[in-house]
């Protein structure tokens, strides 16, 4: 007799039989061996549980056995990992037992005494085939799970790399813009170092107000980029020795919007873009470009506004005499609630007092 490649021949199959009646047990062993199966024979349920292993292809269980009954045994087997088809041996006229056995997950049942040997062998072979399919399914599932785990791990590794590259790219993009901005500032002796100072002041205010690191990072980048819009404004207008004309003011006042547009393609700078746009807004709504007021202006923007104005007041301007730090602070106080946020001004005053 030949067997398909995925099925075991009887010589390779192991059948476990548990029956307390030695006559029945020996008879079943003999029949199984006659058909060429390897047989493991035990006399009760507990022994059967001990012998149940991955190598067993089918289990034949008597129902009434001392100690662990056949039904108790299958319940314990069901909780295990092997998933071996179980065939019950039932006495004649105990149909309800057979029904109960099937309900407990038995694969089949065989009536005692065994009279039809061919039918018996068919049932055993079907159980062994079932076991083969269970094994194949389990192995397929395990392979699939292993493959999914491997792919997930590879994907996670690629994601980490991608995040790393993306972070480098973000940092490089910001650095490029900052370099351009610094180059622009350094060309003008009156604006040189402005961005650096505004950044330092803002960071100090943020820390004084106990802002989390992430917020300090956002305010830092926003400071570094806040006047980037001036890159595209005619420098002669900014560096002009003397007050600006109305037309020149209109041009200068465009720099927050232009700045926001410059960094807009860099999606990760969305919050910074918003701050850049609004760093000339005032609490009383008289600022530009959108005339926002009060709570419409976010805290980080309010911080930059104070830092930016303070530096502008204390730095040398081509056509203005710069103020002392005390005078500039007095001006910040004077413009609390109209131009500047009073809490931010207080925090900045505290920092300046400590620095003295
Ligand atoms: Fe500005």
Write the layout of secondary structure elements.
Layout: E1 14-18, H1 22-34, E2 38-42, H2 45-51, E3 58-62, H3 70-79, E4 86-91, H4 95-103, E5 108-112, H5 117-186, H6 194-208, H7 213-225, H8 235-238, H9 246-252, H10 255-263, H11 270-278, H12 299-314, H13 325-334, H14 342-355
Parallel strand pairs: 1-2, 1-3, 3-4, 4-5
Helix pairs in contact: 2-3, 6-7, 6-12, 6-14, 7-11, 7-12, 10-11, 12-13
This protein binds fe (ii) ion.
The site of fe (ii) ion (FE2) has 5 residues, from loops.
Number of helices: 14
What oligomeric assembly is this protein in? single chain
Catalogue the ligands: fe (ii) ion
Helix content: 55-70%
Order of helices and strands: EHEHEHEHEHHHHHHHHHH
Radius of gyration: 42 Å
| Number of self-contained structural domains | 2
CATH superfamily of the largest domain, please? Hypothetical protein af1432
Contiguous uncertain segments of 5+ residues? 1-6
> β content, as a range?
5-15%
Shape annotation: rod-shaped
Largest sheet: 5 strands, parallel
CATH level 1 name of the largest domain: Mainly Alpha
- Spatial strand sequence of the major β-sheet: 2-1-3-4-5
Q: Give the integer mean of the pLDDT values.
A: 88
Under the CATH scheme, the architecture of the largest domain is Orthogonal Bundle
- Which secondary-structure class do the elements indicate? alpha/beta
Give the tally of β-strands: 5
Compute the separation of the termini in Å: 102 Å
What is the CATH topology of the largest domain? Hypothetical protein af1432
